[in-house]
């Protein structure tokens, strides 16, 4: 480690900036965020810098640098456009044992500004000791993406609650309480922008904790997308990394499962057609029980939990049981498969609407509004439609849809094993059999399928 990261409390302390251009302004912005008094020495100065300095209770000396200015400083930044002046400032500051930073000249610095990720009072500094600034900035970009904007308000809330929590709970339990606050429903309320609810949640939990040592957990109903892990949302990823236990099924790809917290317990509750590994009622009950044990439970589903995912039934039970939950949307198979197959679901020349339909056979028959489905100008997307494919195509033709209407099957869409089979209403069932297409497969029917020839782009390995 080349530099030791320290937290410098510059609030209301005089920081001297030598220079008045854009770089000086950038440093001033940072110092200003932390509440510093900005003393600026420079013949010229940007408007922003002048305002920042005046607003901080500081001063602008419209002159060249002179060593006397250091008398007022507790921290010094040499940001003029002259290397000679910067070197002089650095030498003078070091002679007086003042911390000094000189822009773009590490050898003149006794401290550096790291790349900063900031969420309110929470700040993370990243430094490569000058070895690889581009790498430091990349890491900053990654952290920016990973850390929720809600962390700032969360830190604020924690600051406001600190004394209360201290008064209410003995030291031994406070750590657990804060763990719960930062990982559980409070943090999630804040992420969802529900600041007042979050505060009430803390107060209520505090009362509960005073009376009863084990708080309830929470359930995250999360859409895992169609397969490619790059299609997860940031929130999905965040919750996946917080979970104590995960319930998943067959549609969740192994690549997505890889991203679940390593030491989370994994429970497979997958269903295979006509063979229910774990009946839905049991899944619902399991979610309730695990949450009542105080666990953070991740219910991870393929695609979007609210599209043919029975997500509604699962949270219905949770709501009845008074267990906090949240739902995270995922990219549904229709969007994922269509994009990765190069088939736009709507198109001005072909389809003004799109319908998501279940092709799941009940007692071997399909009871669907065929007349409507055979109407013009729409795209039909059948989920779970492989077994009933023959019936679907025949019914659509019987109800007036042109038998030459293009139709496609997308097998394991968005994954490296994606296969697309294209035909029309007459040929598709035969093609499916010859190519031994297997679940999960999505069926897309309509003029838009014809666009694939030109628009396909995804070529799995
Ligand atoms: N909630 C899920 C759908 C569950 S129903 C979602 O929003 O995507 C299960 C059906 O989804 C499968 O039978 C299949 O038709 C479709 N499906 C899900 N993932 C798929 C994938 N990667 N490729 C093709 N079809 C998929």
TrEMBL record:
Q: Which organism is it from?
A: Microbulbifer okhotskensis
Similarity comment = Belongs to the precorrin methyltransferase family.
Domain Sirohaem synthase dimerisation spans what residues? Answer: 151-206
Q: Where is this region: Precorrin-2 dehydrogenase / sirohydrochlorin ferrochelatase?
A: 1-202
Q: What is this protein called?
A: Siroheme synthase
Annotated residues that bind S-adenosyl-L-methionine are located at 226, 302-304, 307, 332-333, 384, 413
Q: Where is this region: Uroporphyrinogen-III C-methyltransferase?
A: 217-461
Keywords for this entry?
A: Cobalamin biosynthesis, Lyase, Methyltransferase, Multifunctional enzyme, NAD, Oxidoreductase, Phosphoprotein, Porphyrin biosynthesis, S-adenosyl-L-methionine, Transferase
Higher taxonomy: Bacteria, Pseudomonadati, Pseudomonadota, Gammaproteobacteria, Cellvibrionales
Could you tell me which pathway this protein works in? Porphyrin-containing compound metabolism; siroheme biosynthesis; siroheme from sirohydrochlorin: step 1/1; Porphyrin-containing compound metabolism; siroheme biosynthesis; precorrin-2 from uroporphyrinogen III: step 1/1; Cofactor biosynthesis; adenosylcobalamin biosynthesis; precorrin-2 from uroporphyrinogen III: step 1/1; Cofactor biosynthesis; adenosylcobalamin biosynthesis; sirohydrochlorin from precorrin-2: step 1/1
């Amino acid at each position: 480690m080349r530099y030791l990261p320290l937290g410098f409390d510059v609030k209301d302390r005089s920081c001297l900036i030598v220079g008045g251009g854009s770089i000086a302004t950038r440093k001033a912005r940072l110092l200003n965020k932390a509440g510093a008094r900005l003393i600026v020495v420079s013949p010229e100065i940007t408007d922003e810098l002048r305002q920042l300095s005046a607003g901080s209770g500081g001063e602008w000396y419209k002159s060249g640098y002179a060593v006397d200015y250091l008398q007022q400083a507790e921290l010094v930044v040499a940001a003029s456009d002259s290397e000679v002046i910067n070197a002089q400032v650095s030498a003078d500051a070091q002679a007086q044992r003042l911390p000094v930073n000189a822009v773009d000249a590490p050898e003149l610095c006794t401290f550096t500004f790291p790349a900063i990720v900031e969420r309110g009072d929470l700040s993370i500094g990243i430094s490569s000791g000058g070895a690889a600034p581009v790498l430091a900035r990349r890491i900053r970009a990654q952290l920016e993406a990973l850390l929720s904007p809600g962390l700032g308000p969360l830190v604020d809330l924690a600051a406001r609650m600190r004394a209360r929590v201290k008064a209410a709970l003995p030291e031994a339990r406070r750590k657990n309480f804060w763990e719960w606050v930062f990982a559980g429903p409070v943090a999630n309320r804040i992420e969802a922008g529900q600041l007042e609810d979050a505060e009430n949640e803390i107060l209520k939990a505090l009362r509960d904790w005073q009376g009863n040592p084990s708080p309830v957990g929470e359930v995250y109903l999360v859409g895992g997308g169609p397969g490619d892990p790059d299609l997860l949302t940031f929130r999905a990823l965040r919750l996946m990394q917080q979970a104590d236990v995960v319930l998943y099924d067959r549609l969740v790809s192994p690549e997505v499962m890889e991203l679940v917290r390593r030491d989370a317990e994994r429970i497979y509750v997958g269903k295979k057609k006509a063979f229910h590994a774990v009946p839905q009622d049991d899944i619902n009950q399991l979610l309730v029980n695990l949450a009542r044990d105080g666990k953070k439970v991740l219910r991870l589903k393929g695609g979007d939990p609210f599209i043919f995912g029975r997500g509604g039934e699962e949270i219905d039970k949770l709501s009845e049981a008074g267990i906090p939950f949240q739902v995270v949307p995922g990219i549904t198979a229709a969007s994922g498969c269509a994009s990765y197959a190069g088939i736009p679901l709507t198109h001005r020349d072909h389809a003004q609407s799109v319908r998501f339909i279940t092709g799941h056979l009940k007692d071997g028959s399909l009871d669907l509004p065929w007349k409507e489905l055979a109407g013009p100008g729409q795209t039909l997307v059948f989920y779970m439609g492989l077994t009933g494919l023959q019936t679907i195509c025949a019914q659509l033709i019987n109800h007036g849809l042109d038998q030459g209407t293009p139709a496609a099957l997308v097998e394991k869409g968005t994954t490296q094993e994606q296969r697309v089979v294209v035909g029309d209403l007459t040929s598709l069932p035969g093609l499916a059999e010859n190519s031994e297409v297997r679940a999960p497969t999505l069926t897309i029917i309509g003029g838009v399928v014809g666009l694939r020839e030109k628009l396909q782009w995804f070529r799995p390995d």
